């Protein structure tokens, strides 16, 4: 039926100057972002089930909880294994929630949803996701408030696949201002430890000076980020040989960024995922936010054409 709800949920189109974006309500997902008609992220159709986590908002954890098992507040919890091929709980609980639109303008939208207490995560969170376009690009923020009765572990981040221009990831140049990379096991991506990007793998992960990605495989978290002295932002930039590009900037609340060459998607875009905590933070506790009842936290990031 023509009146059937799109598979990606409600469609929210935003416009400002040369920028156009489209948000899907399921997962508060960035479905389309363009500048002067040029894609800045890998898009998908409005009446298409979102491919994996493309553009989704990740909460109450980004990345992986290994084996889906962790201990918090004296209790051992077991999450559903949503990455069954690796035996992990992947990218939180919000990605398939249908967010409600609570505020709307031509260039901005606010969406809300509740993470209800459930097996493996017995906490209630109120999530508010805002998107705003202006001459500087797309700005997204995620606010989480603990509306439950006890402390709750929390982390967040987005999952866009950036597009520099024509071609694929192999053709583009990456500038990633990170001095350390989190090494992982090859099969299950279980964290091992931090390494200097200049030494690990002969410097294969060192993109502090912009260079071609080529056929390098990356699916790693990076930290020890160099930030602007003026704004406090770290910026990851991807550029095509034609000179077009896209940049993603994020504040100090995101001390980590996951970068993935999207080998399972024909390397059509570079996943750049600012994160408030690293993979498996529910177990390591590294940079994990613990929200007391009534407390809230916010993280923000931006995407802009270059």
TrEMBL record:
Pfam families: Aldose_epim. GO terms for biological process: galactose catabolic process via UDP-galactose, Leloir pathway; glucose metabolic process. Gene3D superfamilies: 2.70.98.10. Coiled coil: none annotated. InterPro entries: Aldose_1/G6P_1-epimerase, Gal_mutarotase_sf_dom, GH-type_carb-bd, YihR-like. One of its GO terms (molecular function) is aldose 1-epimerase activity. It comes from the Bacteria. This is Aldose 1-epimerase family protein. The lineage of its organism: Bacteria, Bacillati, Actinomycetota, Actinomycetes, Micrococcales.
């Amino acid at each position: 039926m023509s009146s059937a709800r799109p598979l990606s949920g409600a469609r929210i189109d935003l416009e400002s100057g040369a920028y156009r974006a489209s948000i899907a309500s399921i997962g508060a997902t960035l479905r389309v972002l363009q500048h002067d008609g040029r894609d800045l992220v890998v898009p998908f159709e409005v009446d298409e089930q979102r491919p994996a986590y493309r553009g989704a908002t990740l909460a109450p954890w980004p990345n992986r909880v290994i084996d889906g098992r962790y201990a918090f507040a004296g209790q051992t919890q077991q999450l559903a294994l949503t990455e069954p091929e690796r035996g992990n709980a992947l990218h939180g609980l919000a990605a398939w929630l249908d967010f409600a639109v609570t505020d709307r303008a031509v260039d901005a939208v606010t969406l809300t949803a509740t993470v209800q207490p459930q097996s493996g995560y017995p906490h209630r969170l109120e999530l508010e996701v805002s998107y705003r376009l202006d001459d500087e690009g797309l700005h997204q923020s995620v606010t989480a408030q603990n509306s439950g009765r006890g402390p709750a572990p929390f982390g967040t981040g987005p999952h866009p696949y950036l597009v520099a221009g024509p071609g694929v990831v192999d053709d583009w140049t990456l500038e990633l201002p990170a001095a350390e990379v989190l090494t992982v096991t090859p099969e299950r991506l279980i964290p091992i430890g931090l390494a200097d990007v200049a030494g690990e793998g002969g410097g294969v992960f060192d993109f502090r000076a912009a260079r071609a990605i080529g056929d390098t495989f990356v699916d790693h978290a990076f930290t020890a980020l160099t930030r602007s002295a003026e704004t406090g932002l770290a910026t990851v930039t991807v550029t095509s040989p034609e000179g077009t590009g896209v940049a993603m900037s994020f504040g100090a609340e995101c001390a980590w960024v996951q970068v993935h060459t999207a080998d399972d998607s024909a390397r059509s875009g570079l996943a750049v995922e600012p994160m408030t905590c690293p993979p498996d933070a529910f177990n390591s506790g590294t940079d994990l936010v613990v929200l007391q009842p009534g407390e809230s936290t916010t993280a923000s990031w931006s995407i802009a054409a270059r």
